[in-house]
Design goal:
Blueprint: H1 6-13, E1 19-23, H2 30-37, E2 42-45, H3 49-57, H4 59-65, E3 70-73, H5 81-91, E4 98-102, H6 105-115, E5 120-124, H7 130-133, H8 157-163, H9 167-171, H10 176-195, H11 201-212, H12 221-228, H13 232-244, E6 248-251, E7 267-270, H14 273-279, H15 285-290, H16 294-312, E8 319-323, E9 329-336, E10 339-346, H17 357-366, E11 374-377, E12 383-385, E13 388-392
Parallel strand pairs: 1-4, 1-5, 2-3, 3-4, 10-11, 11-13
Antiparallel strand pairs: 6-7, 8-9, 9-10, 12-13
Helix pairs in contact: 3-4, 5-6, 8-14, 11-12, 11-14, 12-13
Amino acid sequence: MIKRTLQYYLERDARYYPILTVTGPRQSGKTTLVRNTFSDYEYVSLEETDLRQFAREDPRGFLDRYPGPVVIDEAQQAPDLFSFLNTSVDRDAAPGRFILTGSQNFLLMESVSQSLAGRTGILNLLPLQRSELEGEERQAPENPAALFHNRHSRLDLWGTVFQGFYPRIHVSSIPPEVWLSDYTRTYIERDVRSLVNIGDLERFERFLALTAGRTGQILNYSSLANDCGIALDTAKRWISVLKTSFIIFLLSPHHKNFNKRIIKSPKLYFYDTGLVCHLLRIKNPEQARSHPLRGALFENLMAAEIVKTYTHHRLNPPVYFWRDRTGHEIDLLFDDGGKLFPVEIKSGQTISPGMFDSLTWWSSQAGQSLESAALVYGGDEYSSHKGIAVRPWFSI
């Protein structure tokens, strides 16, 4: 098993709460993690028809049979169970009694918010971090600069972009084009149908591919709706589905204003670049390296690694982007308690002076030293440029 950063927090929080809820995308490793972490717990999966029926039809009897400590996998399959869990832990609030997992975040969190507020710790398990894949232990980042300090990697950049970070691809050595095809089909046919009433699944699949083509870009609902041939409200609803099922995340714009109008729409990213490559019909790492969206793929890789790192340390990612309507842009802007840390992302392996133009301009406008800025690029050397830290892609 690949050691997960979140395991420490699972063990810690099981000493605080009577219930822990572990959610995340399908196949991110939730079941493996909780069964390894709580190996002495009883385990039941509501994917099994008889147990699901039992939990739905007789939730009180189900909890009498499994009073804890127990792992209940795919708990959202029996929504009525949550009210009885509420009553059970009110009677006996011993920590660590129930570990709930689920991949359908909307259904799971709806039940949690209605019945278990204040009684459960909520942890999100996303696809692997690069550091987890390479067996490194990373501490929780004390500040944004502390994110960029890893010195070595055995991974190839574009091979990593193409493979992505779903555990099964790496543990079982399954070709990503095979596994991700099955994953996409399962996700659409199972999760999407249960989350929203979509009659034309082929159109949703096209919508998903069009969304992949916009990774790293400002989200324009109207453009997306027009290209897919759907209504604007439908596009918004489908983006919400992709968010709640942990396929995409949206990066908000920062409010910093230099007396110019700033962009107020979010940027769109996927949690996994391998899935983006699959949806873009990229067939191998070399195609990813030379693809017209090469820069967007690399930016997505960096943004997702940062979000995963904070999320797996039980922290809210303090990261935004900044862009004004005249074209000035900072790819990532960390807000560390009011201290701003701008980061520019470039996929090239060779450093050129023009790569620093945005950071230099932004720092002068903000009245900040260049030493509070960083450039992350597709090479493998550490250096600096007029005080700006230059960091390789695997430094995160």
